[in-house]
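Hey, why these numbers?
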Amino acid sequence: MFDTSSKEVKFSCDVKFEESHCVQKFIEELDDAHDSECHDDLNDSDESAVSNATNKEIVNQFSNQIDVDGSEATVNRRYSTRSRAPIDRYAEAMKATISDQDGDPKSRLAALSSVDEDMWEQAMNEELDSLRKTGTWEVVKRPTDRKVIDTRWVFKTKRDEMGQVTRFKARFVVRGFTQVAGIDYGDTYSPVALTESERMMFAISAHEDLHIKQADIEVSFQHQHLQEELYAELPQGYSFSNGQNHQTHVARLKKALYGLKQSALELYKNVKKQFVSAGYRISSVDPCVFFRGRGKRYLIASIHVDDILAVTNDLGMYDELKTELRKTFPLKDLGDVKFILGCHVQRDRANKRLHLSQSAYARTILDRFKMRDCKPVCTPSSTSVNLIGDVSDEVTCHFHTKKPWEHLFTLQL
């Protein structure tokens, strides 16, 4: 019972409707009424007989539509046969479900259905081969007393300083947000080199005419041993042995994977350990900047997860550093820096000048918000526009997590 004045439920109880009993009783009453009418007046009109027969037919039809299984009754429903088609105004949202803002596929199915199917399949095979070589996991039976972390594929097209695609990269990652704090991980914070530190290194290199080198730690997380006991779902497309499948077997992780909350911290600890063992000191301002001097020779290095930037006046020290790091990590020497962390580096050593630009990223932002053909103006907006506090849903962009001006913060070099 609902009180409309106080808007509160005063009394409630569970009710079970015996539909089959009601229908059967209604049919019996209808038959009795029909028989009594026949005895009272045998000369009823044909129209009345037809009407009673029609009513009984309707009741029987309704009774046949009810499927009684003892306690519950379900009525057959009629569904629309109208053809359905996607609405044009939702085209961008539908596109966003299969690809991200840069056009990369968001799932394995989307990757294998794209025009670059062969390239993505090759990238996934390379990733699986790398995981097998490093012994990242062992296949075990699914545990019943531990949570199994969900996994997925992540696809990314690597581009150069001009925005051209140079590599198709597939990464098998875990969904770290499904990890249980205190059981699956402890500390997670991992520092990275400050933008100001790298700008200072570039400024010193231009002024002192130093060598600027770049290196990358390949499959960096797959070389970090885990202290916790973790289980993860095996990747889609994984080749099982006889009698194994995704429902009965999972991966017992021996080494870290991308997506684990503690992966970046474990990598930083190992890289830091290698730098210190090689005789480098840690900057008191930035924990990701290391330096070492030998007389007039010196080297300054910064790390940003698995990207290493080094400036030195002696290439011999740089070769020694690579040898020391390769004892633990597979290191790839990228030579003189040209493109690092989204920045295009152009250098004029004769005039001691160095130019940093993010033109490729700027073009990506313009394409993302469909502003490539817009004309520049001296003011960001018209001075005669009357601003209002409320913005309708039709104007609000639902398909981008950031507004165009918010992306400009990453362009302030």
